[in-house]
Write a structure and sequence with these properties.
Part of the ABC transporter FtsEX involved in cellular division. The chain has 305 residues and is of the alpha+beta class. 70% of the residues lie in helices and 8% in strands. Helix 2 packs antiparallel against helix 7.
């Protein structure tokens, strides 16, 4: 009987404040969709870091005869055979190095033509203008400075370059975008909480006669509050459900189908469905707890039941 009464009161409350209930549902849905999207963005950045940092190389470019004429780092001339062998031997002895690959001038020229064959500059370059290099895969990509400090300024070395620096700029941009999404989510969450509190207050005011009678006949505080808290929880749950649908459809139409980014951007290792599905229970739980707590504290403060 009590459960039936609570359920009937939930329906009455939702219908009586239909406009504000709709606003609560929309604001909760938007804020939690942004919350879930931010979590997925964080997972995506972590996945990309693990994927790309595992593939980055440190490159040691060796001096050629053209560098000897134009580059102060190669003032002592082009790299000699002895210098080349010594650099390779030192690299192989370093514990941070996992693998060393040598790229000759001809190979460097071939790779350049493959990547920038349409560039006007490509037609004027010759293989002897390209630089020999050692491409080093590190056991820990964070240990780039060990290589840089050991070989920068050495005879025969033109420069030491770390591909990780390029990726760091990309990841900084992605993290900045993620923080921006979190900021918008926080504002939407505040709006949702304010709407929930106002909706509960309006609902309680419109039924102040009923709650007064219930107090007179000895109803407990929780029994009086239960319908209002349940109303907020139901509205929040609907919003959370919409947020879950938005995340699933967003993943489906942007990565798998529609925009089909998984096939168009093959260099990016996108997060899988498992990452999306693990976020849905958290979103649903938040969508119920957040409005329920907001309603509970609003009732305690404003109704004094």
């Amino acid at each position: 009987m009590r459960a039936q009464f609570v359920l009937s009161e939930i329906g009455v409350g939702l219908r009586r404040n239909l406009t504000m209930t709709f606003a609560v549902i929309v604001s909760v849905a938007l804020s939690l969709a942004l919350f879930g999207g931010s979590l997925l963005m964080s997972d995506q950045v972590s996945t990309m870091k693990g994927y790309w940092y595992d593939k980055v190389n440190v490159s040691i470019f060796l001096c050629n005869k053209h560098d000897a004429e134009n580059d102060v780092n190669c003032a002592k001339g082009a790299v000699t055979e002895d210098q080349r062998k010594q650099i390779l031997a030192d690299l192989k002895q370093m514990p941070v190095v996992e693998k060393v690959t040598y790229e000759s001038q001809d190979e460097a020229y071939k790779h350049y033509k493959e990547q920038f064959g349409n560039s006007p500059l490509a037609g004027s370059l010759t293989p002897d203008q390209m630089q020999e290099s050692y491409r080093i895969k590190l056991k820990d990509p964070q240990k780039y400075q060990v290589i840089a400090s050991a070989f920068n300024g050495r005879d025969g070395v033109q420069s030491v370059q770390d591909q990780k620096g390029i990726l760091d700029n990309l990841f900084q941009l992605l993290n900045l975008m993620n923080r921006g999404a979190l900021g918008v989510m926080a504002m939407m969450l505040i709006v949702a909480l304010l709407l929930i509190v106002n909706t509960v207050r309006v609902s309680a005011f419109s039924r102040r006669r009923e709650t007064g009678i219930m107090r007179l006949v000895g109803a407990s505080g929780f029994y009086i509050q239960a319908p209002f808290i349940a109303e907020a929880a139901v509205a929040g749950l609907i919003g959370g459900g919409l947020a879950c649908v938005a995340l699933v459809l967003g993943r489906y139409f942007t990565i798998d189908h529609g925009m089909d980014l998984s096939h168009k951007l093959t260099l990016i290792n996108f997060v899988g469905w498992d990452a999306v599905l693990t976020k849905l229970p958290l979103i649903l739980a938040t969508s119920v707890l957040m409005p329920s707590l907001a309603a509970f504290f609003a009732l305690r403060k404003y109704l004094k039941v």
